[in-house]
Structure formats: structure tokens, C-alpha cells
Amino acid sequence: MSVQSVLRFSLALLGLMCFLSLFFESNNPQIIILASLIAFIGVCRLHALFSTKLIFIQHVQLDIGVSLLAALFIIREISSDFGQTLWLLSICAWLHSWLAVEKLMKGDNKNFPLLYSFGIPVLFGFWLLFFWEIITVGLEIPTVILPPPSMIGAKFLSSLDILLADFQQTFMKAVLAGYFIGCSSAFIFAVLIDKNDFLRRGLLPVGNFISALPIVGIAPIMVMWFGFDWQSKAAVVVVMTFFPMLVNTLSGLSSSSLIERDLLNTYAASYWQTLLKLRLPAAMPFIFNALKINSTLALIGAIVAEFFGTPIVGIGFRISTEVGRMNLDMVWAEIAVAAIAGSVSYGALSLVERLVTSWHPSYRLKNN
User: Alpha helix locations (H) across the chain?
Assistant: First the structure.
């Protein structure tokens, strides 16, 4: 039995349960009509006669429209008594969205690649936030434990000036400076020691040792060396990003095959010609992997370092102070800023990687 068949049977069963629950509790007319519609669609899809006569009932657009419409009505009713009808309706709406995604992935239509690349992750994120909202509000979870997304969003919009100042202090100053210094110096250092086997064999164990050091041990030392401003956080980022970049670059420079290097040797290519024409292009996937990994490590390192001394601004400083005040909505707003910054950085590096390494076999296999 396929996933689509399981989803259809589940929707038919839950739709009937949702319709029957209408007789045991009071609901507004929109919820009654929506529950009846979902039950009707679920039953019709199981019956062969209706499936052949009503072709539109199998369309993907119907599933997406019903799921989003149900989510809209449920969000409007979430402040009142959240009964069993709304819980069943929420599950049905989510299953309709899941069924729509299964239909899209099953089809051979590739005319809209952005729909698969961005639409499906956005839809998944929407349902994650939706269930977060209805669970925290419907079950009356205390906001000090887990605030709902609506509360976090309201705090986000009302504190844009504070969030912008924290973002500039942590990301624009500490993260970008430390990331650039750490990655660029590691890349240059890897190219320089590539010809020296003694340095390569001696530095890699040292790099593994330093990369295993905890941030909470490095950060106070850097604060004592470089002060309480963003320079000490940038120094922590440099330490965290240097050796991952060094190790990946050295591995990438060694990834070209012996046959390829022998071919350039027969052309009397020098070391630098071989490096620029063969070894460096072959190392690009390794280099971009290090850059993407470091984009998240740098942000984590800067935020954690701010717990050990910083001016009265910064994402880490704000998280530590607001937790003490039990302002969890502000803490989650700062977490959202960090998550958005990290995701945008990672996505931008992935886009540049696709443009630079479009020749790589992995991308050719994806396109085929």
C-alpha cells in the first residue's frame, strides 16, 4: 500500500470523526462547513464512482486549498475553547497538505523547480509553526516554558531596534570579522604548507586537539586578551573556524587523482600551474563544505562567547539577561534572529557553491 493510499484512508476516517464530533459540541458555521467538506472529500476519494465522475476531487490544488483554509479558520478560533473538533480538523488539514506534497513529488512535472526547492520547505515550516501555536495555546502551556509563535512574533516586531543593534554587534562585527580572518588565513596557510609534508603531518594533530577545546574554556581567555568588545568574540570565531577550514582544504588539495596529476606532469606544468588548473578546482567542494560548516560554528561561537563578558548589546548578552528576567518571548526572538542569520548565510554559500562547482559530478547527477 502506497503512502498516498494510507493518507486517503486516514483522511476519510478522521474526516468522518471530525464530522461526527460536530454533534457533541458547538462550533461556528465556518468550522461546521469545513468539517463537512473534509468528510465529503475523504469519502468521495474512497468511492470509485465519485473518483471517476468528480475529477477535480483528486487535484493537488484542492488539497492545498483545503489545508490552508482549515489552518486559517483554526487560527481564528484558537483563542476560544479548543475542542476535539478543532484538534481533528487540524490533523486533517495537515494530512491534506502532506497528501499534496506526495502528489507533487510523485508527478514528473519539473517545469517549476523552485516549487520543490522552496515551496515544500516553506510549507513544512508553516505546519511546524501552526502546531506549535495550537499546542501551546490549546493545552495552555505556560509561556515561561514555551511561548507561542504569535507571542514571539509580536515581541519581534515591537523590539526591532533592540534586535537590530544586537544583530549588528554579534553578526556584523564579531561573526563576519572572525569568519573572514579564520577562513582566509586557514586557506592561505593550507596552500603554503601543502608542499611541506613535515608541517602537514605536524599541524593536523594539533588542529584536531585545538578543535576539541570547549568554547566555554576559550571564551574567557579571549575576553582577558582582547577585551570585552566584539574583538574577543571575533577571536573565538577565528579559533573555531581556522582548523576546520585548514583540514578540509588540505583534504581537497589531495583529492585529485594520480592520473590527472601525471597528465599535467607530461605537459611540464609547474607546481603553481597544477595547483591553479587542477588541484584547487578539485578542492572546491571540500572548501565550500568547510565554509558552510563554519558559517554556523562562527555564529554559535560568537553568541556563547558573549556570555563571558560583553558590552550591553549582543545576541548572547540579550539571551542571558532576558532569561534571568523570565522574558522568554524576547529570548526566542533573539534565537529567531540568529536562526535567520545562520540560514541566510548557509543558503548564500550553497548558492555560490552551485555556481562555482556546477561542473562537479554530484550536480550533474541531480540534474539528470
Answer: 3-21, 29-46, 48-53, 60-77, 84-106, 113-114, 120-138, 149-158, 160-167, 176-193, 197-211, 215-226, 230-253, 258-266, 271-274, 280-305, 315-324, 328-356, 361-367
Report the C-alpha gap between 302 and 296 in whole angstroms: 10
Mean pLDDT by 10 residues, the chain (368 residues): 78 82 76 83 68 64 84 78 80 87 68 64 88 87 88 90 91 92 90 77 74 78 84 89 88 77 72 76 87 90 85 86 87 92 90 81 57
Q: What is the pLDDT of residues 339-359, one digit of tens each?
A: 999 999 998 998 888 888 777
Classify each residue of 300-325 as buried b or exposed e, where b means 16 or more C-beta atoms within 10 Å of its C-beta. bbbbbbbbbbbeebbbbbbbbebeee
Q: What is the pTM of this model?
A: 0.79
Q: What is the pLDDT of residues 209-241, one digit of tens each?
A: 777 777 778 888 888 888 888 888 999 999 889
CA distances from 15 to 37, 89, 91, 123, 174 (A): 9, 8, 10, 22, 53
Residue closest to 8 by CA, chosen among 100, 123, 124: 100
- The pLDDT value given to residue 79: 64
Q: Is 68 exposed, middle or buried (0-12, 13-18, 19+ CB in 10 A)?
A: middle
**Which residues make Cβ contacts (< 8 Å) with residue 136, sequence separation at least 6?**
143, 146, 147, 148
| Burial of 94 (C-beta count, 10 Å sphere; 0-12/13-18/19+) | middle
333 close to 159: Cβ distance less than 8 angstroms: yes
Give the per-residue pLDDT at 364: 58
C-alpha cell recorded at residue 354: 552551485
Counting beta carbons within 10 angstroms of the beta carbon of residue 41, is it exposed (0 to 12), middle (13 to 18) or buried (19 or more)?
buried
* CA distance linking residue 135 with residue 78, whole number of Å: 10
* Structural domains in the chain, sorted by start: 3-141 (no CATH), 155-367 (1.10.3720.10)
CB distance 147 to 328 below 8 Å? yes
DSSP helix/strand/coil, 123: helix
CA–CA gap between residue 311 and residue 334 (Å, rounded) = 16
SS3 80: coil
Q: Which three cell numbers stand for residue 289?
A: 563544505
Spatial distance between the Cα atoms of 110 and 120, rounded to a whole number of angstroms = 14
